[in-house]
């Protein structure tokens, strides 16, 4: 179950996803919040603008939090990561290493690189996953907004399917 506070942070993640799409990259946004509901950091996908395959929203939020995440990890403080899309395997690894204890996302990504649920179900790092509260797809209205962004992304020239079409046309 999510609260109105959760919904507000999910809207912030969605706003970051919109900015990512405006930057012609995969529309994913993330917000990292401490246990007092202070925004610690935000992030959005920047793969195409930065020409960096690791520039994912969740990783950017964790990086932007810097020393605060490191300190929270040592002192076992509870952080929540809100994302507009299910974290991929790389971002899931970042979540595990940062000891983020709660993750909430708008849309499962079983068609793409969503890896959080798959990795959790594989029972690897079971002890670490068992410490994380997961809330997937808690709000239908916001989920539909993320789906709209994903649909827009499929038409974008930087979408990998469209980039491959250009390469094949040149052959």
Automatic annotation (TrEMBL):
<keyword id="KW-0862">Zinc</keyword>
<dbReference type="InterPro" id="IPR016193">
    <property type="entry name" value="Cytidine_deaminase-like"/>
</dbReference>
<keyword id="KW-0479">Metal-binding</keyword>
<dbReference type="InterPro" id="IPR016192">
    <property type="entry name" value="APOBEC/CMP_deaminase_Zn-bd"/>
</dbReference>
<protein>
    <submittedName>
        <fullName>Nucleoside deaminase</fullName>
    </submittedName>
</protein>
<dbReference type="GO" id="GO:0008270">
    <property type="term" value="F:zinc ion binding"/>
</dbReference>
<dbReference type="GO" id="GO:0002100">
    <property type="term" value="P:tRNA wobble adenosine to inosine editing"/>
</dbReference>
<dbReference type="InterPro" id="IPR002125">
    <property type="entry name" value="CMP_dCMP_dom"/>
</dbReference>
<feature type="domain" description="CMP/dCMP-type deaminase">
    <location>
        <begin position="4"/>
        <end position="116"/>
    </location>
</feature>
<dbReference type="Pfam" id="PF00383">
    <property type="entry name" value="dCMP_cyt_deam_1"/>
</dbReference>
<dbReference type="GO" id="GO:0052717">
    <property type="term" value="F:tRNA-specific adenosine-34 deaminase activity"/>
</dbReference>
């Amino acid at each position: 179950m999510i609260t109105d506070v959760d919904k507000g942070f999910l809207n912030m993640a969605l706003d970051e996803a919109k900015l990512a799409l405006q930057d012609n990259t995969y529309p994913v946004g993330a917000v990292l919040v401490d246990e007092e509901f202070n925004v610690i950091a935000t992030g959005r996908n920047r793969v195409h603008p930065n020409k960096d395959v690791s520039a994912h929203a969740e990783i950017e939020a964790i990086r932007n939090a810097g020393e605060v995440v490191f300190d929270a990890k040592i002192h076992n403080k509870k952080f929540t990561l809100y994302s507009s899309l299910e974290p991929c395997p790389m971002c899931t690894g970042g979540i595990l290493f940062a000891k983020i204890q709660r993750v909430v996302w708008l849309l499962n990504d079983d068609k793409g690189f969503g890896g959080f649920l798959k990795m959790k179900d594989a029972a690897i790092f079971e002890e670490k996953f068992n410490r994380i509260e997961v809330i997937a797809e808690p709000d239908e209205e916001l989920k539909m907004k993320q789906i709209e962004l994903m649909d827009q992304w499929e038409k974008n020239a930087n979408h990998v399917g469209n980039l491959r079409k250009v390469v094949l046309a040149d052959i």
